[in-house]
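User: Please fill in residues for this 127-position structure.
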């Protein structure tokens, strides 16, 4: 692996924020999906719940309480890579994800799902 450009310095992806109407439901979904540990609620009036990778390798996920989740695809979303895409899709559907209506290209390696709060994310075949 090469080195990052000097201009990037210590800038790194540290946290992915997921908006949620039901913060507890969303935190439970993402903690189970990623195998992350759930930390205490934080912020003013418990505005956030932080999820952390127990191995310390992946970015944190911050579940943020909101009053509205946009039904259309957000400008930023999470991509999950796996060699067992279909198996994980079934597991995520059992956890409360739903399939998103999506106009897939003829050849695609991804499936778009929505989490329990309606946020879109992709499960991508890593092969």
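Assistant: Residues filled in for all 127 positions:
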């Amino acid at each position: 692996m090469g080195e990052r450009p000097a201009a990037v310095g210590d800038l790194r992806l540290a946290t992915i924020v997921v908006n949620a109407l039901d913060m507890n439901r969303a935190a439970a979904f993402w903690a189970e999906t990623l195998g992350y540990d759930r930390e205490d609620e934080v912020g003013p009036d418990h505005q956030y719940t932080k999820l952390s990778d127990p191995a310390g390798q992946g970015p944190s996920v911050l579940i943020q309480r909101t009053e509205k989740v946009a039904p259309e695809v957000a400008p930023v979303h999470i991509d999950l890579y796996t060699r067992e895409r279909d198996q994980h899709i079934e597991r995520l559907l059992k956890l409360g994800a739903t399939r998103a209506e999506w106009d897939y290209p003829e050849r695609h390696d991804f499936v778009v799902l929505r989490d329990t709060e309606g946020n879109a994310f992709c499960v991508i075949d890593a092969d």
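For context: The beta strands are 15-20, 37-42, 48-52, 60-65, 78-82, 98-99, 110-114, 120-125.
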